[in-house]
Amino acid sequence: MHIGFIAAAGVYLLGRKHGMIAALPVMLFFGMSTGMNPPVLRALLMAAIALGAFAFDRESDGATTLSAALVLILAFDPTAILSVSLQLSFAAVAGIMLFYSPILRTLNAFLPIRLAENKAVRGILMSLAASLSATMGSFPISAIYFDRISVISPLSNLAVLWMVPVIMASGVILVFAALIFPPAAALLTFIPAYASKGFISLIYLFAGIHLSSVSLGNYPALAVM
Fold first, then answer.
1. Which residues lie below 8 Å from residue 181, measured CB to CB, with a gap of 6+?
2. Is residue 149 classed as helix, strand or coil in its secondary structure?
3. Between residues 75 and 55, which one has the greater pLDDT?
4. What 3-state DSSP class applies to 185?
5. d(Cα 157, Cα 151) in Å, to the nearest integer?
6. Mean pLDDT of all residues in the chain?
């Protein structure tokens, strides 16, 4: 999401080619500042490939971009395939690519047309479809490594995802505020701090719900599947 925001902002503010040129070093700096962990590296490579295609009027599709990002990562470090975070990241994105549209169409089919076209309702349905499809994609990886699956993750994601842009945007604003007037930035640090605490508290709240996750050890048939 963060890499996507940077890429979109560059293209929106400066146009295709200039926006891509401006966004790439910012995305690279963001990736380096977060330690270039596999999910960030995957997002960075996918955004760079997509921006390159967009800037030079070339076709780009999700499956090719995702595959190219994986090939580039493994070309430099073949052992990265053993990283659980890399496997979860790529599996979740693949799940979104495969299942997002069918799930969204199914959800819309159960609603009246007027309600389905409501912006707020549509936003909720799109978030729910993304959460469900990502969960479906990462389900096999979670089952293999953790012997446990989350039942409540689609709802918990829906409850907390809106907070991520708030935390990110307030952090960016504070960085620029600190460059201009540090005392003001210091006073405003409570915004991302409390937003982050709220995010974590909601996650723990959902995790504490009875049967929020299921151990596959209690269901051998699911483990085999």
1. none
2. strand
3. 75
4. helix
5. 11
6. 81
